[in-house]
Amino acid sequence: MSQEYTKAKIMSKSEQTGIVVLPSNAAALAPRITDQWLDQHPATNYLRRYAGHAQRTMRSALNAVAGFWGVPHVRDDAGRDLRYLFVPWQELRREDTLRIYEHINACVRADQDHGADAVAGDEHRDRAPQRQLSFTTANKYRAALRGVLGECFQLNLISGDDYHRAIKIPTFRGEPLPKGRQIEASEIEALLATCAQDPGPLGRRDQAIIAVLYSTGVRRSELSAFNVEDYNANKHTLKVRRGKGNVGRTVYVVGGAIEALERYLAVRNEAIGLEPKKPNPLFVTIRKGGHITKRRLRAGGVRDALVERVKAAATDPLAPHDFRRTFISDLLEAGEDLSVVQKLAGHADIRTTTKYDQRGEKAKQKAASKLHVPAITPVSSVPTPPAARERARGGDRAAPRDDSTG
Q1: Domains along the chain?
Q2: Active site residues
Q3: Max CA-CA distance within the chain?
């Protein structure tokens, strides 16, 4: 970042704390943002709660909120979106947050209407396109907005009354459509067979990747982070050292995945060996011609390798995360306890695990069929004759009771 200060108006509320807030027209300038200014900014203070991918996600959410507020695109020399730095967060009041909410809600409704239009066919095809947001994304934007306002309150940039009124914006409610899909057993077999037909080291590596993704349910970022030292060949386990939320766990390599992984390890170690006292990436990049490097295969490389194998196997398109969805769905279908599956998947909240369940109506029908409803045969299945019903009704009409004591 440049050490030159941007010439900007300093809001009166910010002078007391030294927080520099640029005016609404500052986006027209070429911003020169200092480290000192960033350190004192409520949005950057909020983002410090997060790290890595989570921080990038919430920064993107703040930029989206800034766009709904009306800040035009602002980027630095590296092309990074800086809109979130140009919102006077401490100036926002309830009417402002409600206006942002309405803009976001319009995009949520557009997403719902798009789903309805897809079902209805061509009836609404000539409508003007509008940005669409899922409930999950909309609530992420809501959380980011409320979070920065909380930082403003902690920095004494906004009064308690204004803060509590401003954050009272409704939650976006609805049931999002399930993402991804469950991979059929025949598709997994076809992918593994395609890799087996490749005699080179790339075939051994990709076969191990597919087998480990399905057998452990790890995320592709977790698979990329594995080191050779994380594999216990005696117990056939892999250690996830830093999963989502920096939570580690042990996963289990089973069945044919053991053979696939150990075949790949033999090829890898023979080619590049192991360096003592250094982490040795488990899955590495392999150049054309089968040259094995010592460079770690990144998460994007896992995706690219899978794309190529899907094309070769001629299966329906799928994503690396679909192996995770299938892992969870297949375990639940096999009757495993939900809390056990949650721990294997590394989910902090059991509700997240249920969202991965792709079994659908078949699972519901199978569960319902396990209920036992006794079938009791009536004493007589012969219908009562009409005359008998009349006599029964006549007999019910008892004579008026004589209450006299006589």
Answers
A1: 1-177 (no CATH), 185-359 (1.10.443.10)
A2: 219, 244, 321, 324, 347, 356
A3: 118
